[in-house]
Every structure is written in C-alpha cells, then in structure tokens.
Amino acid sequence: MRKGIRNPLYLGVPLAIGALLVTACSSSSSSTPSSNSGATATTGATSAASAASTSAPGVLGPQKAALEALYNQAVAAGQTSVVLYGPSTGSDQTLYKAFAADFPKIAVSGVPVVGPPMDAKLAAEFSSGKHIADIAYTGDTDLVAYQANGWLTKFTPITVSGPADLAPESVGPGDTFYGVTDAVAAIVTNSSSSVPVPQTWADLESPTYKGKIAMYDPTAVGLAADNFAHLDLIPADKGLMAGLKVNDVQLYPSSNITGPLTAVAQGGKSVAAGMSYAFYLQAKSSGAPVAFSLLKADNYSVILYDAILKGAPDPLAAQLYEDWMFTPDAQKAIAAEGSFSTVIGAVAPQGLPTLSAIPLQPPIPISQVTAADNTAITTAKQYWGG
Predict the structure, then answer these.
(1) Within this chain, do residues 334 and 311 fall inside the same structural domain, yes or no?
(2) Where residue 116 falls among pLDDT bands split at 50, 70, 90?
(3) CA distances from residue 265 to 154, 260, 280, 282, 283 in whole angstroms, order as listed
(4) For the chain, what is the largest distance between any 2 Cα atoms, rounded to a whole number of angstroms?
(5) Residue 151 and residue 198 in one domain
(6) In degrees rounded to 5, what are phi and psi of residue 72?
(7) Is residue 309 within 8 Å of 118, Cβ to Cβ?
(8) Rounded to whole angstroms, how far apart are CA atoms 65 and 43?
(9) 352: in domain
C-alpha cells in the first residue's frame, strides 16, 4: 500500500494508499468492546497541523543514542537510502518525512507492488543477485513464504524489548519480521445514502443490502480471504459468505485496492465492507462523500510487517529504519496516516478510539494463518468460483 495521493479516490484512481494490506494478511488482536465501538467517523482527515508535527524532529525514545550511532555508521558506509517493496509503500510520505526529520542524510522510498508481481520482482533480484529492495513491507503470509525461500535476514529491533511490547502476533518466526502497523477495517458508506449503516457482519445478509455491497474478492489470497478466515472462528459470523452471495455482493480483486471504496464514493454501491480507516481518511480528505463506522463486534485489523531482505544494498540503513518504526516519532506518523502502531498503548488515529477499546476479531497465530486463509479461499470458491 504509499507516495502522496493527489487525485481523489472517487474518480477511481487505481493507486496504492493507506496502511492496509491487500495481499498477504495478518492476524487480528482481540480486545474488549467499549461504548465507542459503534462510532461513525464523518470528518476524519488528519489536520495539516497534526501531519506537520510528524515532520519535525521529536522523540526517539530510550535508544536515541544507539539509533544515532547506527545512523552515523550507515552514513559513513555510504548507505544513504532505504527502498521498501510492498502493497502500502505508495502513500507513506508522512512516515518517510518523519524519518528524514530525524535522520536527514538517509532517504526512504517505496515501490508499490503487490501479490504475484512482488513475488516475481523479488525472485528476479535473488536470481540475478542484483538487489534493489532493502525491506519487504507486507503481510505475514507473504513473509512466511519469503522466509521459507531463505530471503529474509534475522534482525531484532533494539527499540523492542520483547514481544510483550507489541500487539499479539507481531513477531515473526526466528525474528525475521516484525509487525509495525496495524490497520483497522470496518464499514465505509456513502454519506448521502439513505441505506442504514450495518452494525454487525450479520446485518449484511439482510435484503436491505441486496445489490448494494462492494468488497474485495475472497477467492484469492488477500484481505477478504483473511477477514473470512477470522470470521470463521466466530459462530455468529461463520455463514456470512452464503448471505453475501444471495445479496449479489460486488467483488473487486485485491489488486484494485480502491475499487470498493470508489464504488461507494461514486454512489454505485452503498456499503464497502472490510475497508480500512486509512483508506477512508485518504478518500475523505480528497472530498469523497464517505463515512466510516466501526461494527459493534468483530472488527477486522491487519498487521503489516517489516523484514530486511538478504542481499539488501543498504543493510545498516534498513536496520535503522526498522528500529525507528517503534519510536514515539514513528508512532505519531503512523497514526497521522490512519493506522495504529503495533506498540502497546500507541496513540490512535484521529477519529478512532484506542486500539484496545475497539472490539476486534480473535487472532490467528502466524504459524496457522496460511492454512486458515487457504480454507477460507476454498469455501469462497464454492460461492464465487475462481
């Protein structure tokens, strides 16, 4: 998913935005519901003042001296850039600017790439030995596969004292990848529509929504498949696919990350199900007539992970960037983009309660997520083919 978006989403611009994973997805973390769990965000866009605050030098935390030493070491070695590959790297300018404010001699850039094209791009680099990417920034199912291929370097960020510092399922096997952002996804509606806002996943089975729902395609690896894998753990939501099929839900491939939101913004559909808050903020700030609503229970969240690639051209700079992602400065920048940092107690994006106050789906261990997602895909193909 990150360079700055200039064109409104409701014009259908097929750009990678926000902090939402659309290929390999991650486990959600469970929490206790609160009175805010059904709140609707209708204003949403982070203020210019808040965004600007992330671009000024701020707080690096207790490892400040170690981070600065690594920075000086990287610069001395001529490592003055970091390149990230991933589905969310096209709209992370807030993050990149905040990092540059702290470490101005190292430039960070992202190459938006997703699914099989990302796999092929990395495979070609490993085959040729001509590496461009330093970091893979994507979901756990992708990274489990990359680890099996021997593509990842073990690295433990100095800014994380242990797994207890982070949201559940934030640490990959063998310390080869670490979750850095957690994006909440729920319901986006057209603010001009008279259709009632769904309060639960089961509401989407009502005839009220027949022909009015847009979502990602669950018949392939992606956010929708992972969402259904989690919903399959919840008795009340286990049969949702059948109801959505009856209601003629319109499916969009995961590669068309703006598809469901654009359909709602343009008025072709009334509800985008499983849409990230970060995407909503981008659309709202572009003038789209959309509103975001959390469900009363079982909201989906997706963690994106950083992994340093073997053969990375700038390994010291890549280590610094991954270390930095857990600092207070990075946490603020992540929130400004509309996602949560995985650090426990991190600041929430404007318009949302704290992550612990949002009722989320139960987690799936990283070791089990690939099998769970594949089961959901098999079930989805029974309804939608593929």
Answers:
(1) yes
(2) confident
(3) 43, 9, 10, 12, 8
(4) 64
(5) no
(6) -65, -35
(7) no
(8) 39
(9) no
- Domain for residue 158, yes or no? yes
Q: How many helices (H) and strands (E) does the chain have?
A: 12, 11
Please compute Rg for the chain using Cα positions. 20
What is the distance between the alpha carbons of residues 82 and 133, in angstroms, rounded to a whole number?
A: 8
Domain span holding position 209: 25-46+184-301+358-384
- pLDDT band of 307, cuts 50, 70, 90: very high
The letter for the amino acid at 18 is: G
Q: Answer for the pair 383, 225: CB distance below 8 angstroms, yes or no.
A: no
Q: Residue 353 falls within a domain, yes or no? A: no
Query: Residue 375: exposed, middle, or buried by beta-carbon count in 10 A (0-12, 13-18, 19+)?
Result: middle
Give the closest residue to 346 by CA, choosing from 40, 61, 11, 78. 61
Question: Around 31, how many Cα atoms within 13 Å sit in the side-chain half-sphere?
Answer: 25
Check whether residue 199 and residue 261 sit in a common domain. yes
Q: How far apart are CA 215 and CA 263, in angstroms?
A: 10
Name the least confident of 35-39, 79-83, 124-128, 175-179. 35-39
How buried is residue 248: exposed, middle or buried, by Cβ count under 10 Å (0-12/13-18/19+)?
exposed
Query: At 339, is the secondary structure helix, strand, or coil?
Result: coil
76: number of Cβ within 10 Å:
9
- Give the whole-angstrom CA distance, residue 135 versus residue 88: 12
Q: Answer yes or no: are the C-beta atoms of 15 and 90 closer than 8 Å.
A: yes
Neighbouring CB atoms inside 10 A of 13's CB total: 14
How do 213-216 and 250-252 pair as beta strands? parallel
CA separation for the pair 37, 35 (Å, rounded) = 6
The domain that contains 122 carries what CATH number?
Answer: 3.40.190.10
Q: Taking the CB of residue 119, how many other CB atoms lie within 10 A of it?
A: 17
Asked if 323 and 373 sit in the same domain, the reply is no
Query: If residue 121 lies in a helix (H) or strand (E), which one and from where to where?
Result: helix 116-128
* Amino acid 58: pLDDT: 60
The band of 254, judged by pLDDT with boundaries at 50, 70 and 90, is: confident
**In this structure, is residue 281 part of a structural domain?**
yes
Distance of CA 222 to the CA centre of its chain: 11
Residue 30 reports pLDDT greater than 80 = no
